[in-house]
Amino acid sequence: DKGNHRHFMAKEIHEQPEVVGRTLAHYLDMSAGRVRLPFELPFDPAELTRITITACGTAYYAGLTAKYWLEKFARVPVEIDVASEFRYREAPLPKGGLMIVVSQSGETADTLASLRYAKEQGQHILSVVNVPTSTIARESDVAALTLAGPEIGVASTKAFTCQLAVLACLALAFGRARGVLPEAEEQRLVSNLINVPGLMAEAVKREPHIEQMAGSLAKATDVLYLGRGTSFPLALEGALKLKEISYIHAEGYAAGELKHGPIALIDESMPVIVIAPHDAVYEKTVSNMQEVSARGGRIILVADQRSADDASIAFEAVVAMTPMPSEFAPIVYAVPVQLIAYHTAVFMGKDVDQPRNLAKSVTVE
Ligand code: F6R
Questions:
Q1: 252 CB less than 6 Å from ligand 1?
Q2: Between the CA of residue 357 and those of 58, 115, 224, 244, 326, what are the distances in Å?
Q3: Residue 256 Cα, ligand 1 centroid: separation in angstroms?
Q4: What digits encode the pLDDT tens for the residues 200-220?
Q5: Residue 130 β-bridge partners
Q6: Strand order in the sheet with 124-129
Q7: For ligand 1, atom 16, which residue shows the shortest CA distance?
Q8: Using an 8 Å Cβ cutoff, are 206 and 336 in contact?
């Protein structure tokens, strides 16, 4: 049932404040302002020397975001790879290490094969899954559930933000267990997480503006998506979402990589979408935007208004986000990124719920 939405994808984008809120409530002790995992860990996070993450597609980008959080909040080195590479490369894994697999369906063939490989190598397996009865959930030592509810649209939206919510909570829980996250810092971060669903609801309100931008984006044959830090995985996700439902060629890049090649592509016809919350690397991203602007590039900025004003660049459009502490910005900024893809595809008359050549669950290699 699509409710009063035209597509399941629209419904699922709009549901996110609610399902992310529900997922967070499952992993947080709201009154104490602390993380509270709804399961016992069968290993001691303090003893981990490395975490390996593997997944495919959008779930991989959730995992890539988690790498930043786990390294920063839990001070544990994280290795991550797409499952179709990981499963074949005979990676040596540390004794008693942890493998985190991320999967909405819990049935993705390459992700499952990676899980089985890691198990053979003596790893503990923690899966972040949306389908509790799935093969991946059943074969894991711990299944950390995303409470997104059934996701019908082929393009993943609410499962992604719920994966981010769970992974953020895990990073904080591991930080505490490893003795590297002081209680006051945990409480500050948890209160930021508690504000995320409300901020997502505000982000949804940018929809009419994003819808207006869609006509101009729909004319592009190529789009570049840039981000730094935790906005980098989101740039990759933005490009994936745009190509899978609008069929516009889009590429995500780490903003700092621009000058190492892709800057050659910049001209007046290619939109460059930049995700730049006001975080520690914001100033660096501004220099990258100046490089684009100096070459006549068209920049669409997704940032708070202060970031937009401070940059003193003539933007083609600004999706103005509510200012927020930056740590968990990707969960909120995912909303405009999804809406940009959605409205561009709808403007072009594409079947957003059933994009060509794609299946919801990829159970073949
Ligand atoms: C993109 C998308 C895919 C999936 C990928 C993994 O919108 O839906 O990239 O994220 O096929 O699927 P799961 O999460 O079911 O393992």
A1: no
A2: 16, 26, 23, 9, 36
A3: 27
A4: 999 999 999 999 999 999 999
A5: none
A6: 78-82, 51-55, 98-103, 124-129, 142-145
A7: 103
A8: yes
Q: Give alpha helix (H) positions in 94-223.
A: 109-120, 135-139, 158-177, 183-204, 207-217
Nearest of 363, 349, 359, 365 to residue 7 by alpha carbon? 349
Distance CA 100, CA 80 (A): 9
Coil, strand or helix at 129? strand
- In the reported structure, the alpha carbon of residue 240 is separated from the centroid of ligand 1 by a whole-number distance in angstroms of 10
Closest ligand 1 atom number to CA of residue 361: 15
Question: Do 287 and 258 form a contact (C-beta atoms < 8 A)?
Answer: no
pTM score over 0.90: yes
Looking at this predicted complex, what is its ipTM? 0.99
pLDDT in tens, 178-194: 999 999 999 999 999 99
Atom 5 in ligand 1: which residue has the minimum CA distance? 57
Task: Determine if ligand 1 sits within 6 Å of the CB of residue 163.
Answer: no
Q: Does any ligand 1 atom lie closer than 6 A to the CB of residue 53? A: no
Choose which residue among 65, 156, 234 to substitute to test ligand 1 binding: the one with the highest number of ligand atoms within 8 A of its C-beta.
Answer: 156
Query: Which amino acid appears at position 182 of this protein?
Result: P
Q: What is the DSSP letter of 5?
A: -
